[in-house]
Write a structure and sequence with these properties.
heterodimer, A: about 625 residues, mainly alpha, Fumarate Reductase Iron-sulfur Protein, Chain B, domain 2, Rossmann fold, 4-stranded parallel beta sheet, 32 helices, about 5% strand, B: about 350 residues, alpha/beta, FAD/NAD(P)-binding domain, 2 domains, 5-stranded parallel beta sheet, 7 helices, 20 strands, elongated
Chain lengths: ~625, ~350
């Protein structure tokens, strides 16, 4: 039996973290809703298992998405994660193949050199030793980058990196000391016995030339074991919890579990899976346009993890979804922020460790007798029966040129439609949702839903992506909900709308709620390609900036919004277009205030391109005959 | 021949300052971008508070600039300004280089372009007009809707492009209120049966005789003042305007049908002034007007020696204040020129 007391810290840490992982997994599984439990069971023992394994390999080890964002940052993460994984894997194999017996306890693999100092002299042993040294060098190169990143984040291609709490720093230092202490411990041992490959061997023989290698090795083996033990013990209370959490998250996500609109075990998994890599800080417009650097998603999740009051952070966000799009772990950041905004959600702010594992069930206060709902004053309406409903939305009423354009398009199309909020309607409810006032929003949703049901329409067209998103997500409607760009595309495809082509150069700005929020990217561009020359920019599709007008942010002032708009315009007008097109009335208003370029909604551009009806018609229309002579 | 001074902009301030400087013996060049002098005053019909015809002011200003020491150049702009050994060299759009010992900047203001407040429908609905458009109608002698009908219900919207962070103008233009009062009374004089509504945030009647005018407009002309900002304007089937506004005194939302809506456009730094500021490296303030050197003692001075400001290129002012400000600029210019010779 090979044993030495220095392996105890490592063993304590390892068994603690293994038991912890099992307990935590059971708690998370129990915390899932019944359907989600079934999904996870089916996912784990089903087809998505392979997909999950592949994703774990590609993302948790190789870090492919981080590579895409920044190759140097990706290398840093890959060398630490994949390198360490290979070191453990080959270490275990080494102990199994070259050790005195098979199936060793884990510490044998980790401290193999200590127990087998003569190993690695010749043949396959030497090749193996070379491999182990190579892996260690690989990890150390990543570690060097990590140390530099802390001091100077631009080296790895990032403008900002996250600020850490004290415990995170301790864990980080213990992680950092794991690999150098292993290097020194192995080198001294190799030096003393004249073994080791290119790294530990060379360093060892050089060190032993002026130091007592045999005596020096032992303290470093202790340091190595202590570093590992400390890291494992600290792992559950630090950001490094993301390592085991992400494995669980990947299985859950591939099984089809989604955040939805309520906090729960899945949300908690996601919160713990954040590694605080800081990519969300770099892509955040509040960071690079207004210099606000403490509200990004990494800080939101960190605040929730550490039971901090995050209400200021939760409401200081454009809700543009750029961080969602770029999160290498694929955490649904915007839905989590929405949950945090809602009142009466106790789960995410657990007060004690005990409460965190045994959360209260949310208590929804029933309406007290005698109190009216907030929107009880709204009188029920009787709409006329129709095929297509047009819901302009509040913001479209504030941009009458879009409204007028849509009316002329609808008239030209000849469909039977009703302009449901012509004389002003009721808000779609999304602004209240974004403000966390779910109950009040629900009252508006119910009011509008009734109106839409009664009309008997089969299609609901809206001009506003803000309305579109909530109609799609939070209304239970038996109608097809279309944004007007989708509706116009259908009209063009079916040959109902005849349009002239103009040679104007146009850049298209994808609104947040339509693009990243609802996944509508192609229809608007197809409509534009039909009538104008559409230019490509770096700010297309998923990379589109928020205009700055966002209803989602309750904290920034007009000055800051204007700065965001000015920067957004700069990104969008690099090719000096004749028209900056968008498909959101709020974006139009915000961008127009920040540029001299004409800003227009797609509906306006289309309305201007409509081919006037057949001149023959003028014979039958006395009004037209009076105004325009027949050619 | 005395010292050379260039005055940029021949509106009320520029003409007054140039005339005074010429009288004091300076050799003055007055540069105007338009073909005609008079600036914004020319766009107005009658002036508050005494309903004087603006033509009287124009002819007064014309008499000021008719002086042998004064050269008037119209139809050109100052594109660039350099300083060389205490001498200013101004390059104009048509290629001239003017030399000067001192420069008076009197580039005035532009009216807020009401199209930028799209929710009010200027440029979209035919019967939404600006305060300047209404003055033109007054001058023509007829106030009519686009379809030629006589308007019976008219609304005047205050603070269009003023006190509005969303359009980037947080400051008060301070003259739109009294303009609205004046125009409301004139409308009522012209169209006796019409009903006139003013939608205001606050009534800022700070000038001489403004408050009296405001009282008269209510007592004698029966103008309706509604405290509340117009939120949006739309058009109904027979081309009437539907205005949504919250009556904040009654605490309820209103929806009104109107035949015509007049937008009281605020005052902004003029575009030509902003261009000059960029070209010459002159500082502008939060409100985008030229930044004056000191709020109490230096309202005519820039941060550069030898460059002075006169009139509404520094802040919104009425004609009385503009002329006083221009005269004060002359005192500062002469003082400065004396230090040069001494």
């Amino acid at each position: 039996m090979q044993f030495d007391p220095f392996v105890i810290p490592f063993n304590v840490g390892l068994y603690f973290i293994l038991i912890y992982a099992v307990v935590r997994s059971v708690i998370w599984f129990r915390g899932l809703s019944r359907p989600d439990k079934l999904r996870l069971q089916r996912g784990f023992f089903g087809r998505s298992f392979g997909q999950s394994i592949r994703e774990i390999f590609m993302e948790s080890l190789i870090h492919r998405r981080i590579f895409k964002a920044s190759p140097r940052l990706g290398y840093m993460h890959m060398s630490l994660a994949f390198g360490w994984f290979l070191l453990i894997l080959f270490g275990t194999l080494e102990a199994d193949i070259f050790g005195e017996k098979h199936l060793n306890p884990p510490y044998k693999a980790i401290f193999f050199k200590f127990f087998n100092p003569d190993h690695g002299r010749s043949g396959l042993e030497a090749v193996w030793a070379f491999l182990m040294d190579f892996l260690l060098a690989f990890i150390l190169s990543g570690l060097l980058l990590a140390v530099i990143k802390r001091v100077w984040s631009r080296v790895v291609g990032m403008k900002k990196t996250t600020k850490l709490k004290a415990l995170d720093k301790v864990a980080m230092l213990s992680l950092w000391s794991v690999f150098p202490s292993r290097l020194l411990a192995e080198s001294f041992t190799s030096g003393a016995y004249g073994t080791g490959s290119f790294l530990t061997g060379s360093l060892g023989s050089w060190l032993s030339s002026f130091l007592p290698a045999h005596e020096m090795a032992y303290p470093f083996w202790w340091l190595y074991s202590l570093s590992l033990g400390a890291f494992f013990i600290l792992l559950p209370v630090t950001r490094y919890m993301h390592i085991p959490s992400e494995l669980f998250l990947i299985f859950a996500r591939n099984s089809g579990i989604r955040t939805g609109d309520r906090a729960g075990a899945f949300t908690e998994m996601q919160i713990y899976s954040c590694s605080s890599c800081g990519i969300c800080i770099d892509v955040c417009q509040l960071n690079f346009s207004t210099g606000i650097t403490n509200i990004q998603s990494a800080y939101l999740l960190k605040g929730i993890r550490n039971d901090k009051d995050v209400s200021d952070i939760a409401f200081n966000c454009l809700m543009c979804g750029r961080c969602d799009q770029n999160c290498p772990v694929g955490i649904e950041l915007t839905p989590i922020r929405m949950i945090q905004r809602r009142a009466g959600e106790p789960q995410l702010k657990a007060k004690s460790l005990l409460k965190r594992y045994f959360p209260d069930n949310p208590v929804v206060q029933p309406l007290k007798n005698g109190t009216e709902p907030a929107f009880a004053f709204l009188k029920p309406q009787e709409p006329e029966k129709t095929d297509v409903l047009y819901f302009a939305g509040c913001m479209t009423h504030l941009t009458p040129s879009i409204k007028n354009a849509m009316i002329s398009i609808l008239e030209a199309s000849g469909v039977k439609y009703t302009f449901i909020d012509k004389d002003g309607g009721v808000c779609c409810g999304r602004p209240l949702m974004l403000a966390g006032q779910t109950k009040e929003a629900r009252e508006l949703i119910n009011f509008n839903s009734e109106l839409i049901w009664k009309s008997g329409a089969h299609t609901l067209v809206t001009s506003c992506p803000i309305c579109y998103k909530i109609f799609k997500e939070s209304y239970y409607l038996d109608v097809e909900v279309l944004h007007h760009t989708q509706f116009i595309k259908d009209l063009i495809d079916e040959g109902i709308l005849k349009l002239n082509f103009s040679r104007k150069k146009v850049t298209y700005h994808t609104p947040c709620d339509l693009g990243r929020g609802s996944g509508v990217y192609d229809e608007p561009k197809e409509v534009l390609r039909h009538v104008v020359r559409l230019q490509k920019t770096d700010a297309d599709d998923e990379n589109a900036p928020c205009c700055g007008g966002s209803l989602g942010n309750m904290k920034i002032n007009h000055h800051q919004r204007h700065k965001i708009a000015v920067d957004a315009v700069r990104m969008l007008t690099v090719k000096d277009p004749d028209i900056l097109a968008t498909s959101c009335p709020l974006c139009k208003k915000t961008l127009a205030a920040a540029t001299g370029t004409r800003v227009a909604d797609i509906a306006e551009i289309v309305a201007e391109a409509i081919v006037p009806a057949d001149p023959v018609k003028r014979f039958t229309d006395p009004l037209h005959r009076m105004k325009q002579p027949v050619i | 021949m005395g010292r050379r001074v260039v005055v940029i902009g021949a509106g009320a301030a520029g003409m007054e300052a140039a005339g005074q400087l010429a009288k004091a013996g300076c050799s003055v060049t007055l540069v105007e971008k338009e073909e005609e002098t008079g600036g914004n005053v020319r766009n107005w019909y009658h002036l508050f508070p005494d309903h004087r015809d603006s033509k009287e002011v124009i002819s007064y200003l014309d008499s000021r600039v008719a002086h042998k020491n004064l050269t008037l150049i119209t139809g050109t702009t100052v594109e660039d300004m350099e300083q060389d050994h205490g001498q200013f060299i101004l390059k104009t759009g048509d290629g001239m280089a003017l030399e000067a010992d001192a420069v008076v900047v009197s580039t005035g203001f532009d009216l807020f372009r009401s199209e930028r407040k799209e929710e009010y429908g200027y440029g979209i609905y035919d019967n939404v007009i600006s305060s300047a458009d209404l003055e033109k109608m007054f001058r023509k002698g007829e106030v009519l809707r686009h379809d030629g009908e006589i308007p019976r219900r008219i609304g005047l919207v205050h603070c269009v492009g003023s006190r509005d962070e969303k359009v980037g103008n947080p400051y008060c233009s301070k003259l739109c209120c009294v303009t609205a009062v004046k125009q409301a009374m004139e409308l009522k004089k012209k169209l006796n049966t019409a009903r006139v509504f003013c939608f205001y945030m606050d009534m800022r009647m700070g000038g001489a005789l403004y408050e009296e005018l405001y009282r008269e407009s209510q007592e004698k002309y029966g103008i309706n003042y509604i405290r509340g900002k117009v939120s949006e304007v739309s058009e109904n089937f027979d081309n009437r305007l539907v205005v949504k506004v919250e009556d904040t005194l009654a605490g309820r939302p209103l929806k009104m049908e109107l035949d015509m809506l007049v937008l009281m456009a605020g005052m902004e730094m003029s575009e030509s002034g902003a261009r000059l500021a960029r070209a010459a490296g002159l500082k502008t303030g939060e409100n985008k007007f030229f930044a004056i050197a000191d709020h109490h003692f230096g309202s005519n001075k820039s941060e550069l020696n030898g460059i002075f400001y006169a009139g509404t290129c520094t802040m919104p002012m009425n004609i009385t204040e503009t002329i006083s400000h221009a005269r004060a600029a002359v005192a500062d210019v002469l003082d400065y020129l004396n230090t040069l010779s001494g």
